[in-house]
């Protein structure tokens, strides 16, 4: 027994306090903060001389219509006797079940009825006189909540129509302070630009993901970059500056009542250029297989390296084995091969390690092989180089063509009256060609990859520590292909002789 503040004797009562957070919206909800609500509850408990044994706070607003498990927990505690009385800030914060919940409580005999205090209404469940007012107020609160929910939804609709951004700003953008318009986020927008540019230049999503991961570029969710993240990014209308709506969680460009798209970027904020967006999406539309529904296949260690001896086609990893892709797709293969991943993958790793560690970075005889490995490795580690290279190579071809045309023209007698002009033109083109060739990396210098000259142990450990994608890139830098023969009918045991490993030097490893 203990005395209350006002000297009243009161038995030991464990009280629970319930409050619900609400948000201030345009319609002007009475949105007393949860702290203020609970403060009031604590004051009440002090005055009554009760101990506060639990606080139940709902984080979800009334109008979202979501389940509020805290009130259920409070009711459970009340019924189980963990608390004797539940204090609630207000009836309209208490339940979304309206009169039904109050009826369930008030219909019980007074002696066992859950004891709930509604502070704002100055009513409680112990007094039968409050039965009808509580039922009515609960039902009114429910209707108000429903109406509010509708108001909020139409507010969202109006905002969307006007191009105001209502959700979280997509990666690479931010909501401009004091407005509801998007603008590029200077920290992350460059990654968006880079991804679109690379993909538009023909770099695969996977290669971009590998590049971003290796550079430690922060990803939207703080996890590793993956093809599907980039795929979604390339298709997100917000980067064109457009307002979005969602269909099954997938964003699409929102259109207003007149069928027009709505700008979500601030007027002076620069979204991605339309041709950049188009180039990236067009590049992807040609190879959507890169990301959709084939995660297991695309991420396998030897994807792209394995070939079926029966048809010469690729093998895909499905489940625990690599199988002839054509056969899987129902295309005819005279001898579809299958091999368990746990048999073939260690073999290929072993071949890679033995081969690469036997090459000497200082031996001129090995230089050609290193050049080949370095190029293949580069393709995986820095796809921008590939894109740049493609550009540079195109420039070389272009200049060679022009030089040929110039010579043809002279053959045809076009420069007979001005040989000096011809000489000047040839010289210009040859200079340009030399620059272009330098630019394309035709310099004859081999930049060795990081793993050149590593000891077996070191490279072996490294190989197993990197991600599957990186391991695939490493292996395929030195292994040109792995060709698998079909197992003879009826054989159970794996025969390593079915596997042929071809190195980039053209050598062929057979056990
Ligand atoms: Zn096949």
From TrEMBL:
Domain Recombinase: 170-290
Name assigned to this protein: DNA invertase Pin-like site-specific DNA recombinase
Keyword list, A-Z: DNA recombination, DNA-binding
PANTHER family in the record: DNA-INVERTASE FROM LAMBDOID PROPHAGE, SERINE RECOMBINASE PINE-RELATED
One GO MF term attached to the UniProt entry: DNA strand exchange activity
Organism expressing this protein natively: Actinomadura coerulea
InterPro entries for the chain: DNA_bind_recomb_sf, DNA_bind_recombinase_dom, Resolv_N, Resolvase-like_N_sf, SSR_resolvase, Zn_ribbon_recom_dom
């Amino acid at each position: 027994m203990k005395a209350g503040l006002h000297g009243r004797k009161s038995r030991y009562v464990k009280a629970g306090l319930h409050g619900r957070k609400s948000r201030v919206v345009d319609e002007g909800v009475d949105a007393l903060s949860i702290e203020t609500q609970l403060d009031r509850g604590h004051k009440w408990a002090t005055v009554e001389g009760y101990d506060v044994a639990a606080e139940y706070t709902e984080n979800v607003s009334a109008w979202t219509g979501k389940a509020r498990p805290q009130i259920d927990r409070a009711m459970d505690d009340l019924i189980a006797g963990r608390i004797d009385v539940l204090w609630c800030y207000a009836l309209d914060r208490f339940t979304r079940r309206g009169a039904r919940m109050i009826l369930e409580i008030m219909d019980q005999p007074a002696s066992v009825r859950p004891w709930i205090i509604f502070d704002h209404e100055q009513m409680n469940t112990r007094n039968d006189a409050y039965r009808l007012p509580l039922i009515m107020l609960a039902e009114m609160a429910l209707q108000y909540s429903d109406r509010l929910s509708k108001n909020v939804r139409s507010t969202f609709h109006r905002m969307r129509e006007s191009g105001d951004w209502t959700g979280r700003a997509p990666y690479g953008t931010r909501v401009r302070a004091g407005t509801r318009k998007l603008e590029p986020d200077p920290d992350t927008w460059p990654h968006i630009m880079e991804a679109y540019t690379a993909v538009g230049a023909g770099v695969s999503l996977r290669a971009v993901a590998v590049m971003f991961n290796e550079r430690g570029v922060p990803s939207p969710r703080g996890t590793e970059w993956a093809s599907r993240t980039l795929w979604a990014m390339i298709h997100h209308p917000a980067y064109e500056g457009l307002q979005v709506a969602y269909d099954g969680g997938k964003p699409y460009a929102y259109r207003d009542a007149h069928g027009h798209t709505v700008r979500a970027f601030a007027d002076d904020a620069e979204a991605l250029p339309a041709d950049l967006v188009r180039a990236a999406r067009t590049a992807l539309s040609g190879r959507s297989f890169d990301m959709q529904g084939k995660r297991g296949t695309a991420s396998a260690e030897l994807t792209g390296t394995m070939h079926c001896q029966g048809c010469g086609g690729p093998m895909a990893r499905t489940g625990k084995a690599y199988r002839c892709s054509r056969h899987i797709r129902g295309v005819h293969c005279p001898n579809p091969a299958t091999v368990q991943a746990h048999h073939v993958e260690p073999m290929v790793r072993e071949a890679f390690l033995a081969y690469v560690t036997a090459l000497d970075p200082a031996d001129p005889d090995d230089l050609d092989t290193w050049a080949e490995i370095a190029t293949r490795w580069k393709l995986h580690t820095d796809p921008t180089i590939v894109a740049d290279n493609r550009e540079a190579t195109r420039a070389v071809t272009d200049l060679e063509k022009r030089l040929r045309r110039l010579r043809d023209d002279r053959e045809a007698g076009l420069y007979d009256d001005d040989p000096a002009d011809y000489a000047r033109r040839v010289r210009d083109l040859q200079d340009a060609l030399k620059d272009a060739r330098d630019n394309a990396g035709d310099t004859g210098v081999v930049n060795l990859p990081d793993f050149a000259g590593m000891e077996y142990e070191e490279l072996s450990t490294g190989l197993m520590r990197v991600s599957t994608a990186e391991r695939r890139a490493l292996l395929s830098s030195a292994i040109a292909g792995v060709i698998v023969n079909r197992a003879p009918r009826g054989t159970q045991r794996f025969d390593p002789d079915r596997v042929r490993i071809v190195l980039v030097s053209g050598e062929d490893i057979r056990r």
